[in-house]
Each structure stands twice: as C-alpha cells, then as structure tokens.
Design brief:
538 residues, alpha/beta, Diaminopimelate Epimerase, Chain A, domain 1, 27 strands, 33% helix, globular
C-alpha cells in the first residue's frame, strides 16, 4: 500500500509538471521594476526564445512554467536592460589603446602620462584623450613647446575630454602642413603671440587627423570587444553610438552576425553628403542587434572649449560667440531631404544660438509630419523662449555634463544665461520624455553616475549641498524611464525593449541595491551582479 501511494504521488507530480509550459529560464523572488505604463513592480518572470513570456508573482510563474534554468534572485532588484542614448562606443574601445588623460591636474601631468605610455609602447604615432584645462590650476589651453622638445619626430595628437579640441606637437602639425595662416570653416587654429600653440578646435582637427594613419581592422575589432565588456559590466544592453561611418557599421553588423558582438547598437550615421545619399537609398537597417535609421550632425562645438555657439558673447571671453560647425545652408538642405524619408536627424547643439537654429529648422521641415522623434543631442544652453520649440523635438541629454561643468559654466555664460543651461526638468516638461545618456568617453561610462547626477545634481562629494540648479533635477522614476523606455522610444524601439513586459526582449539587469529607494549618496556605488541580453547572461 505504501509503495502504491508513492507511485501514485509520482504519477500526479509528473502529470502536473507536464501540464506546465517549458521555458528557457525563470527568475523568481526578485524586486522587479517593470517600467511599464503604470511603473508597476513584480516578483518573477519567465523567458523563452529571448523574450519575456509572462511577468507576475513568484507563485504564479512557478505554477505555470517549468525550466532547467531557474534563478532565485534572493530579493535583489531587477530593472530593464539599461540604454545609453548618446555615447561613443567605438571611441571608448579605442581609448583603451591610447594615453588616458582623464583626471590630469596640470599640463605637466599630461606630459608625464604621455612619456610613461610611450616608454611602455614605443608607438610610431601617439594618441591620447581626456585632458581638460578647466581642471588645472591655470585654466588656459596648453601649448606644444614641451611636447616638441620631448618628441621632435613622433606625431602626437591629444584630444580634449569633449573631443572638440586637440593638442598636436609640431610633428603632427607637419602632417597637414598647418601654419599660422591655415583657416577652416567651423574650426579654429589657435595662435598666441603670432605662433602656433598646437591646439586645433572643432573642424580644424581635420587639418591633422585627415593625415593620421587609419586603425587596422584588428584594432577596430579589439576596440569594439573591449568596449562591450566595459558596458556589459555596468548593465548596458543597448548603446546609441553618436557618429559612425559606413565601414564601422558594417563591421559591427558582421561581428553581431557571427555572435562575437552581443551588444545592441543604435547607430547614428556620421553626416556626409555621401553617407546621407547611401543610407537614404538603402533605407532603414534593422536586425536583432543593429538598428540604423538616424544621421548625426554637429551644429556647434563644446562649451568647455568655447566652441559652443552663443547668441551673446562668452562672459569670460568678450567678442567671442563660439563656432558654427555646419553651415546653415548645408544643414537646412539636409534636414529637408531627411524629413522626406523615414530617417531620424540627431543634432549636437550646445549653445543657445545653436539650439535656436536647430529647433527652428526642425520645426519647419517637420510641420505636418508627426512622431518623427528627431533629437537634439545635449541641448545644454536654451533661451527661455525656445523651450516651447521642444514640444515636437526630443531632448537627448547627459546628466553628468551638469555636474562636471557646474564649476565653470557660470563663468562662460553669466548668472542669467546659466539658468537655461542643463535645464533637464524644463526639457522634460516641454516634450514629455527625455532620453538619457553619458556621452562616454567624454564622461564616465557608469549609468549609475548618470542616475545620481540626474536626481541629486551633485558631485561625488555631495557638492553643492542643495544641488546645482536643483529645480531642474529629475525624479528617480523619470530617470529610470529616461535610461530605459524613453531611451528605447528615442530609438523607435519602445515596442520591443525598455521595459519588462510579455513579448519584449529579455534584456535585464540584476543590481546589488534597490536603486529606487537606497539613499541617494549610495547610488554611484551600485554594482551590477549580472547583465542579461535575450535572457542570456553576459
């Protein structure tokens, strides 16, 4: 009788198990922020074929599904896969092969790092990135006198942290035959006391870089793989690379097709007449991991290098208005052409003059064309009357720019104009959504620093005490949306990702702390326990 009872129990157990639906994985006992329409929370979900099948309670999911891969989250927080809506993914990878100049406190510190790098690598050409004269005691552009003495024959190009200025030694300047008489539209060759300093701003960078040796395919592949590891470790599952050429886009596609590159990439095609013609003719490209449907334009330069185009002179440099990088005739003609396609236009605009010009053009060419989701990248300084023009234009913003620039922004802009700078809440109120990114490697890759800067508006030392222009801070819910569902929306991908819902791609991240409730001072230190793409651990 006892054996019969056990046998009956096993039969019933097998029968119940067979009634359950087989899935690839189940996650239970979690604190899940779904970021759905009601921003609801859940405990569990089931995944099959790379997508969420159902989201609910642990009891419901366990009763309905069976799997050989069950994950007990032990109460840990899970959020949708994080999206960086504006970054330089390939650039991050290349930075791993260059002199790291981030955090240098003087030009002497810069030179020491270059010497140390070259002693170890002995490269024929030296590149570096990350210097920022605003972090030095003497906040002025450097010159190349010392580099010329130390490296008379090795070309050197050291890029400012924002990418909008480079310092070249004479050997590098000679590549492009740069002289004190060299001129270029949308750029500046910096001269002091009638001599070249070696600093080239915005379009002037091309005078040297056009003659710089191209990285090999092996270098590019290594850069992409290095960048992927860094990003996966920090919970990013989609990156919007703001400016790629056709060759790189095709390389990314090939690496994704072979399964080597698993990162999802929303590629903004770098503007050129040739690129616009090619991709408009080809049409939108959409695979499981690559999406090409936007062009990246530059309206002006950066505020830190005084290349941002302002409507009134810089407060700390009278008679200087900044630089218009793309002439308005070319910009307007391109906008009209792109408006007649399904492609998106994403334009870098920092200064209030640049923002005004871009917004005027966007609103004009998009009249009668709803839901185009054209983006202004950065939208850093906006005139009070221009916020209304953002009603039909999506702001793509990077919160850490505010906390990096706050030490000197008022010097550049003055006490009144700075009130319209880094005005993220006003931009959110105007459009109803904001896409959040980092602009890495201009800023650090960590999305948790992005989250912290958006909410706290402070640096890591909790300065200033009340937050920098705190009225323009975002709530935690707004911030998480900006890094997930709103970023997906900005990429025309909100139907397939950006939230944890049945039918969407199973991209999610397990965190060691609850990002929505933890003390805000702990947000920057949040760690990613595991990142999943298509339900697969990375």
């Amino acid at each position: 009788m006892k054996k019969l009872t056990i046998l009956l129990f096993l039969v019933i157990l097998c029968s119940c198990s067979e009634d359950k639906l087989q899935v690839d994985s189940i996650v239970t006992n979690a604190n899940i922020y779904t970021v759905n329409d009601t921003f609801s929370q859940a405990q569990a979900f089931a995944v099959k074929d790379g997508k969420f099948v159902e989201v609910g309670t642990s009891e419901t999911i366990n009763a309905k599904y069976r799997t050989e891969n069950s994950i007990d989250a032990q109460g840990k927080t899970i959020v949708p896969g994080l999206i960086d809506a504006h970054c330089h993914f390939l650039g991050l990878g290349y930075n791993q092969q260059a002199v790291n100049l981030v955090g240098t406190k003087s030009f002497e510190d810069v030179v020491k790092r270059v010497l140390d790098f070259q002693n170890e690598n002995n490269n024929a050409f030296i590149v570096g990135r990350g210097w920022d004269q605003n972090d030095w005691e003497e906040q002025v552009f450097p010159n190349n006198v010392l580099l010329n003495k130390l490296f008379p024959d090795t070309p050197i190009a050291l890029t400012r942290i924002d990418g909008h200025a480079i310092l070249c030694n004479q050997a590098a300047l000679d590549l492009g035959n740069v002289t004190v008489n060299s001129k270029i539209e949308g750029g500046e060759v910096v001269i002091e006391h009638g001599k070249l300093t070696g600093v080239l701003v915005d379009n002037a960078e091309s005078l040297v870089l056009n003659y710089w040796p191209e990285p090999s395919r092996g270098d590019a592949v290594k850069a992409l793989m290095d960048a992927q590891k860094i990003c996966f470790d920090l919970g990013l599952t989609t990156v919007d690379d703001a400016g790629l050429n056709r060759e790189t886009i095709e390389m990314i596609d090939s690496l994704q097709q072979t399964g080597d590159l698993k990162m999802r990439v929303y590629a903004m095609v770098s503007f050129s007449e040739e690129n616009v013609a090619y991709y408009l003719n080809k049409g939108i490209i959409k695979t499981d991991r690559l999406h090409v449907r936007s062009f990246k334009f530059y309206a002006d330069g950066a505020l830190g290098s005084r290349g941002a185009m302002l409507r009134a002179p810089y407060s700390d440099k009278p008679n200087h208005f900044g630089l218009l990088v793309t002439d308005l005739e070319t910009f307007n003609a391109s906008a009209k052409k792109i408006a007649n396609s399904e492609y998106q236009m994403n334009t870098h605009a920092i200064g209030d003059s640049a923002n005004h010009a871009v917004l005027q053009t966007y609103n004009k060419v998009l009249e009668g064309k709803p839901d185009r989701r054209w983006r202004v990248e950065h939208a850093q300084v906006v005139s009070p009357e221009d916020f209304d023009l953002y009603k039909n234009v999506l702001p793509s913003i990077q919160p850490t720019h505010a906390t990096s620039d706050m030490y000197w922004a008022e010097d550049r802009l003055g006490s009144e104009r700075v009130k319209g700078a880094y005005a993220y809440k006003q931009l959110l109120d105007a459009y109803g959504k904001v896409a959040l990114g980092t602009d890495f490697p201009v800023e650090q890759v960590s999305p948790f620093l992005t989250f912290y800067a958006a909410v706290a508006r402070q640096d890591l030392e909790q300065f200033p005490e009340d937050g920098f222009q705190k009225e323009n801070g975002l709530t935690r819910e707004e911030t998480l949306k900006g890094m997930t569902i709103w970023a997906a929306y900005s990429n025309f991908e909100d139907h397939e990702k950006g939230s944890i819902e049945a039918g969407k791609l199973a991209d999610f991240v397990i965190l060691d702390k609850d990002i929505m409730t933890v003390n805000q001072t702990e947000i920057p230190g949040i760690k990613v326990e595991k990142t999943f793409v298509n339900g697969e651990a990375q």
